[in-house]
């Protein structure tokens, strides 16, 4: 017993700088969490996007002139996919912490031999994986229905990653802050959804008055959706370079906030 205590000091990490096995295990657990209910987590967002596409194309699609040089339905489809990517990434990470707090199994993360970096990165990357799965299924389905084409693969991958990673981090922050599902609904209904709809998903910001257009250019969701759409139609409302820089900075900042909050045990340690 004495030899064991000398060999393994309490509180000392024995996994090197990064606990790769632990981080990978947590990532797998989070990934399986949404794959086990794929009808709800992957199929449902796809159906929601298809309904939006159907209703809007039937209602105004035939009467609407080209937007950014492409038919309205081709302009609309990438925006709908991007909107689901954003919202589902937030939903994944926020529900992970929210459910853990309510069920009491959040202590599994607190007592696991995982650092704040390993926990936050693993959960956020699982949210990114869910977003990529939704994007892949949606793109394939839309390709079969309306023949959308990917023109810039790297841009598509980059903006999908940055968007979902940011919202994955924001979801962790919301999950740590919220004490009940009503709080989470408040964030979703008054922050995530409005920013999604005011980001140029259904329209080009070129049609907005100068004041509203300037405001839209500060909305990170605008750059997420604009970059995603550019990958398909080859035309952007804003600057792709500015979008990449802006979202990259937000990725770092939002992760730093999640790291600090989890490190301090914000609302999860008594």
Brief overview, please?
This protein has eleven helices and no strands. The protein has 270 residues and is mostly helical.
List keywords for this structure.
elongated, mainly alpha, 270 residues
Count of individual domains: 1
Estimate what percentage of residues fall within beta strands: under 5%
SS class: mainly alpha
Task: Give me the number of helical elements.
Answer: 11
Main sheet overview = none
* Distance between the ends: 32 Å
Can you give the mean pLDDT?
88
Helix content: over 70%
Shape: elongated
Order of helices and strands: HHHHHHHHHHH
Oligomer: single chain
How many whole angstroms does the radius of gyration measure?
Answer: 21 Å
Description:
The longest helix has 32 residues, at 72-103. The protein is built from 11 helices and no strands. 75% of the residues lie in helices and 0% in strands. It has one domain (20-54, 73-264). The relative contact order is 0.14. With 270 residues, the protein is mainly α.
Q: Can you lay out the helices and strands and say which pair or pack?
A:
Elements (H helix, E strand, L loop, with lengths): L1 H6 L12 H16 L2 H24 L10 H32 L3 H5 L4 H31 L6 H25 L3 H17 L12 H7 L3 H14 L6 H25 L6
């Amino acid at each position: 017993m004495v030899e064991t205590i000398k060999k393994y000091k309490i509180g000392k990490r024995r996994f090197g700088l990064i606990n790769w096995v632990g981080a990978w295990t947590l990532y797998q657990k989070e990934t399986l969490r949404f794959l086990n209910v794929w009808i709800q987590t992957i199929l449902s967002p796809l159906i929601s996007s298809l309904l939006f596409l159907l209703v809007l194309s039937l209602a105004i699609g035939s009467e609407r002139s080209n937007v950014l040089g492409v038919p309205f339905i081709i302009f609309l489809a990438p925006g709908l996919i991007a909107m689901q990517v954003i919202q589902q990434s937030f939903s994944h990470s926020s529900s992970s912490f929210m459910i853990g707090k309510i069920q009491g199994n959040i202590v599994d993360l607190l007592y696991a031999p995982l650092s704040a970096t390993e926990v936050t990165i693993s959960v956020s990357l699982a949210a990114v994986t869910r977003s990529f799965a939704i994007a892949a299924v949606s793109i394939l389905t839309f390709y079969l229905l309306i023949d959308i084409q990917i023109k810039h693969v790297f841009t598509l991958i980059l903006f999908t990653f940055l968007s979902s990673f940011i919202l994955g981090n924001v979801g962790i922050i919301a999950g740590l802050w919220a004490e009940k599902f009503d709080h989470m609904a408040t964030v979703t209904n008054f922050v995530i959804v409005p920013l999604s709809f005011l980001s140029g998903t259904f329209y080009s910001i070129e049609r907005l008055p100068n004041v509203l257009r300037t405001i839209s250019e500060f909305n990170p969701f605008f750059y997420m959706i604009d970059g995603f759409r550019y990958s398909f139609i080859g035309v952007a409302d804003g600057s792709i370079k500015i979008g990449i820089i802006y979202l990259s900075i937000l990725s770092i900042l939002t992760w730093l906030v999640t790291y600090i909050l989890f490190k301090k045990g914000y609302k999860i340690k008594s």
